[in-house]
Specification:
One of its GO terms (molecular function) is efflux transmembrane transporter activity. Belongs to the outer membrane factor (OMF) (TC 1.B.17) family. InterPro entries: MdtP/NodT-like, OMP_efflux. The protein is an alpha+beta fold and 457 residues long. It is built from 13 helices and four strands. The chain has a four-stranded antiparallel beta sheet with strand order 1-2-3-4. Helix 10 runs antiparallel to helix 11 and helix 11 packs antiparallel against helix 12. It is elongated and about 135 Å long.
């Protein structure tokens, strides 16, 4: 009787610590914010130092850093990645829990015995020793997997920051291009109207008026293409920031690219790549697989299960016993799982080597492209300055009646084309800098900083 009461108390104590279930219905409406002002964020939780120390104030417009901050705080994919990190932490917690013992109860009632017979029972308390022995490898694998998911999240945050900066760069460049095209449109439309009037008066030929029309329509086509590109990038940016697609964002400031110090980057390349979250995530995943492989090797040994038995037979005789179950590693010996885990480890090894090789190649290409783009931009700006001088003189000559309208328009159009080329090169140079920051992290050494350091008093 005392044993039954103790068992009942133990059972009630176990049940009192159980978790409870509560349903969580799915949403039935959109919950995307309509403006950046309605989003609150904690700068201290942002991945980069320049973001965590930047002031977030959407009331005066969003600069490039504020766009990146908002993306990290409210990106839907990052929210799901953080949920995945919560799952990994829960799995790590579960892997560290001790296995529960197993309690078995049987009862027998005699149906044709004598008066002296009684009900029989059997209590079995068993414990899987192998589950306890494999706990360290399971826990080690789960902890390394949690580190991998956490590092994957950090790498995904890097990608979101880069994508936000890239879209900001593209949109600001498109705004500058739109201003150039609108100026060209006004100039060509005025030229076309005058050529039509001259054609009606018989002062010009049809081919000259047609050429003005073709030039005007070409600019209109570029404006139409640019408007579609702006709309697409605005929708992409809103989606990246977790806002409604119709949200209007006021972007302020212009990105300014700086030439990186290739020598300083090459010197610190190994250290910077070792700190890259995606490579660290692959390292953590490899450590997790090492633990799984070790667990599979341990599991080839005989599985051991031990237990205690308390019983009473139908004659009223009580017994206390000890039981042990031992598997015989004759056929299986866990060889299949060992082969799988070993092959998986080989795959992860090769994947890490390939990612490391790609990282070095991508950095080398980016470092080669930067000075090339910088040189092209310098030459383009030099040509732009020359055209500006010629255009000013042409405007004075045109107003004085010493230059034909067609020649004046050609010079002005050439200047606008050169300015457009400079905007495109500036955008490409900024995109290359963003690519380098994505590959190697922020706070990269620049040639300007290097010169200031070398010439510091």
């Amino acid at each position: 009787m005392q044993f039954k009461i103790s068992a009942l108390v133990l059972l009630l104590g176990v049940l009192s610590g159980c978790a409870t279930y509560a349903p969580k219905p799915l949403p039935d409406r959109v919950n995307l914010p309509q403006s950046a002002a309605s989003i609150t964020l904690d700068p201290a939780r942002l991945p980069f130092r320049n973001l965590s120390s930047h002031i977030f104030n959407p009331a005066d417009g969003l600069d490039m850093d504020e766009v990146a901050m908002l993306a990290v705080a409210n990106n839907p994919q990052l929210r799901q990645a953080r949920d995945a990190l919560g799952i990994a932490r829960a799995q790590s917690f579960a892997a560290g829990l001790l296995p529960d013992p197993q309690l078995g109860v049987t009862a027998d009632h005699p149906t044709n015995g004598t008066v002296a017979n009684t009900n029989a029972f059997n209590f079995n308390l068993n414990y899987d020793v192998n589950a306890l022995l494999l706990r360290s490898s399971r826990k080690g694998a789960a902890q390394a997997e949690t580190q991998r998911v956490n590092l994957d999240l950090l790498w995904q945050e890097w990608q979101v920051v880069s994508q936000a900066r890239l879209l900001f760069t593209q949109l600001t460049a498109q705004e500058a291009l739109m201003a150039q095209l609108q100026t060209a449109l006004k100039l060509l439309d005025d030229r076309y109207q005058k050529s039509q009037q001259a054609l009606a008066a018989g002062n010009v030929t049809v081919d000259l008026a047609s050429a003005d029309l073709i030039a005007l329509q070409n600019v209109e086509r570029q404006i139409n293409d640019l408007e579609r590109g702006c709309l697409k990038n605005q929708a992409s940016l809103n989606g990246l920031l977790g806002l409604l697609s119709t949200t209007h964002l006021s972007l302020v400031g212009e990105p300014h690219a700086t030439l990186m110090d290739a020598a300083a980057l090459q010197k610190d390349l190994v250290e910077r790549l070792n700190q890259r979250p995606d490579l660290q995530a692959l390292q953590a995943g490899y450590r997790s697989q090492e633990e799984r492989f070790r667990g599979a090797v341990l599991a080839q040994f005989p599985a051991l299960n031990v237990g205690l038995t308390r019983a009473r037979d139908t004659s009223g005789l009580y017994t206390m016993g000890f039981g042990m179950t031992l598997s015989l590693p004759v056929f299986n010996r866990n060889r299949g799982n060992i082969a799988i885990e070993n092959a998986t480890r080989t795959q992860l090894f090769d994947a890490y080597q390939d990612r490391l090789n790609s990282a070095y190649s991508e950095v080398a290409i980016a470092l080669e492209n930067q000075p090339l783009l910088q040189s092209q931009l310098q030459r383009t700006r030099a040509g732009e300055q020359q055209l500006q001088v010629v255009a000013r003189r042409a405007q004075a000559a045109f107003q004085a009646g010493n230059l034909a309208a067609a020649d004046y328009v050609r010079l002005q159009t050439a200047l606008l084309d050169k300015q457009t080329e400079a905007i495109n090169l500036q955008e490409a140079l900024m995109e290359q800098q963003i690519a380098l920051e994505t590959l190697l992290g922020p706070d990269l050494p620049t040639l300007a900083n290097h010169r200031r350091t070398n010439h510091a008093p």
